[in-house]
Specification:
The complex is a heterodimer of chains A (134) and B (89). Chain A is mostly helical. Chain A has helices at residues 2-29, 33-59, 63-92, 121-133. Helices cover 73% and strands 0% of the residues of chain A. By secondary structure, chain B is mostly helical. Helix content of chain B is 80%, strand content 0%. The chains are: A mainly alpha (134), B mainly alpha (89).
């Protein structure tokens, strides 16, 4: 059991640190703010989660592990909130996404949608239903 | 040993986030990088407490988590409204 906890804790700590580094590389190399936000939130959830759970496994079942899990729960609550506030503030400042290429309407096939205000068959009666089938 | 490995990874992450905070073209990039730096500070304090055999430092990590969240939201509010006392949309 001790060996299992050691191995699991090693894997979680090294994996969490690896995810942190991957997210930081993404933070440096992604092209615009919104994709950078995507890279940074990986480190907030997966990186921090794996590192904190690995530390809690090392602490054993006591108050320290509970505190670590409280830190994790708090991070899981606050990181989406601050990310949402950040992106909303940036969007209201008019920052454009670089990957947001305008769509050429000539290239896109928009499927025909039935008109919403068209009368239904029951309202139009028999003849109207025949017209629709034509 | 495992704590030292995690601390090295977290320090590399903090260096990269600091690079983005210095480089970032807009103020929002800097806020994003600073927020991530604060999160990594929490992890660093927790792991360093285990490395030095004093796991009580987890309390400090909890306080840093609170301060980091409040600071990020406060800076965002200031940047967005140019006023700390602004209300609503």
């Amino acid at each position: 059991m001790v060996l299992f906890i050691e191995i699991a804790s090693w894997l979680l700590l090294v994996g969490g640190a690896g995810f942190c580094i991957v997210g930081a590389i993404g933070l440096l190399r992604m092209p615009d703010l919104y994709s950078r936000t995507h890279a940074a939130t990986i480190t907030d959830t997966l990186g921090a989660g794996m590192v904190l759970v690995g530390l809690a496994l090392q602490a054993g079942p006591n108050l320290t592990a509970l505190k670590l899990l409280m830190v994790l729960a708090f991070l899981l609550y606050t990181s989406p909130v601050s990310g949402h506030a950040l992106v909303k503030a940036a969007y209201s400042h008019g920052i454009k996404a670089e990957l947001d290429v305008p769509i050429d309407p000539q290239q896109v096939q928009i499927p025909e949608r039935p008109a919403r205000d068209a009368p239904t068959d029951s309202a139009r009666g028999k003849e109207g239903a025949d017209d629709v089938s034509d | 040993m495992m704590f030292a490995t995690a601390i090295v990874g977290i320090l590399i992450t903090m260096a990269l986030a600091l690079a983005r905070a210095l480089k970032g073209p807009t103020v929002f990039d800097r806020i994003l990088a600073a927020n991530m730096f604060g999160t990594k500070t929490i992890l660093l304090i927790a792991a360093a407490g285990f490395l030095t055999g004093r796991p009580d430092w987890t309390d400090l990590a909890l306080v840093y988590a609170l301060v980091n969240f409040a600071g990020t939201v406060a800076v965002l509010k200031y940047v967005r409204f140019q006023d700390m006392a602004a209300g609503g949309e």
